[in-house]
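Notebook, bench 3.
Goal today: get a predicted structure for Alpha/beta hydrolase from Dyadobacter frigoris so we can plan the truncation constructs. The sequence was checked against the plasmid map this morning, with no discrepancies at the termini. Length recorded as 333 residues. Pasting the sequence as submitted so the record is complete.
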Amino acid sequence: MKTSLITIVCFLLALHIHAQNDTLRNLDINLENYQYPFPVKFLLLDLQGEKLKMAYMDVLPEKPNGKTIVLLHGKNFNGAYWEQTAKALTKSGFRVIIPDQIGFGKSSKPVHFQYSFQQLAANTKKILDTLNISSATILGHSMGGMVAMRFTLMYPETAEKLVLVNPLGLEDYKLKIPYQPVDKWYHTELKSNFETIKTYQLNSYYDGKWKEAYTHWANLYAGWTLNKDYPGIAWNSALTYDLIMTQPVIYEIQNIKSPTLLIIGQRDRSSVGKNLASLQDQKTLGNYPELGKKANTLIKNSQLVPLDDIGHLPHIEDFDKFIKPLLNFLTDK
């Protein structure tokens, strides 16, 4: 009887957690009222005159293989969306580190902060140093791909391998998109709500094909728009738009020496600020089949895995297609 009661309580708790993930509700600025899939730790940082907290998850395998992988999130997401990936990797023996970059997820949202990919990479490196991890595979998706490339260029001795999953930054956006002041990005972000977020993700990520599972991630961002502190989120989002637009990494990726895997969804045509470009340039921006081939040529020690009929989020859209080449690459000596 006691065992049955415990089972029922666990079941109800699981239902509650599932409900919190899939229901649109007011989320506070640091997601303190949203439960991540794994325990969250915080790294204290003193940066640019502010005391900040950088959240991260350190997921340990039951049977360690001695290898570590760092999973870096995209701009419109946070570390929580790596849950399924982390479970598969730890099952294969990998220790998994999942940071929330400053300005994202459960990490601090600074009032005054000059964002740079160098600073985000340095913050990530400090987590590894704190954990006494001297070598790791660095995996980045979307904007996280730009952080991952910068990290690998800055710390080649630490980046044992590099994995890029539909990364931003494989082209120089400012060549085709007119400069937008931070204030303009900010006022655009202030207008966000669930419908605008869903529409953007539907068209940019999923090619007009919405699945109920995607609502989870739209709600997680849209929940912020219901909070009184949303302007702070919008301001940090505006600053990171400016970061992506003005700090290209494409001109340096030929200097990457780490063995690199490019996992590229072939249906992806997403690009930050694409709607601001001319109609002619909109046709050429975000052409991931071509961008993947170009990166594969520039990064000498790299391999390209094109995923047919997959968009900007391979690990969300079709996990099986995503995880198989990743595990093959990680276990290939």
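The domain at 2-331 is CATH 3.40.50.1820 (Rossmann fold). The chain is about 40% helix and 15% strand.
Flagging this for group meeting.
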